[in-house]
């Protein structure tokens, strides 16, 4: 992935912090998901008083894309921090990693964890979820 594309994804993910609905934790997360079609799908976290119905930024982006018929992805950028101030990486939770396994090749799908356009690291889904369970585990 080119540095210009990474920078664009980081900027978009950071912009999503403004849309986060986090009245309980005040921990805002933004995501930018790159489809193989070249389009970027955005997401922010959305909390709920019952906690269980809370939806992470990553899943919001994936579900937006899938609801539009897109099921193939190259990368996701995730940013987050208390009060929307990003001071360290905000890696995806286990549920989000499992959603990624449903739609992404663990060997090639890239997860960009960023603080800003100059401070970021890139991981494969396999690095984030070794021995993940996905659709290929259910084929004969």
UniProtKB/TrEMBL annotation:
InterPro entries: CMP_dCMP_dom, Cyt/Deoxycyt_deaminase, Cyt_deam_tetra, Cytidine_deaminase-like. Its cofactor is Zn(2+). GO terms for cellular component: cytosol. Residues 4-136 form the CMP/dCMP-type deaminase domain. It is an enzyme of class 3 (hydrolase). PROSITE patterns: CYT_DCMP_DEAMINASES_2. The active site is at residue 58. GO terms for molecular function: cytidine deaminase activity; zinc ion binding. Substrate binds at residues 45-51. Zn(2+) binds at residues 56, 93, 96. It holds the Pfam family dCMP_cyt_deam_1. Its EC number is 3.5.4.5. It comes from the Bacteria. Keywords: Hydrolase, Metal-binding, Zinc. It catalyses: cytidine + H2O + H(+) = uridine + NH4(+); 2'-deoxycytidine + H2O + H(+) = 2'-deoxyuridine + NH4(+). GO terms for biological process: nucleobase-containing small molecule metabolic process; pyrimidine-containing compound metabolic process. This enzyme scavenges exogenous and endogenous cytidine and 2'-deoxycytidine for UMP synthesis. Belongs to the cytidine and deoxycytidylate deaminase family. This is Cytidine deaminase.
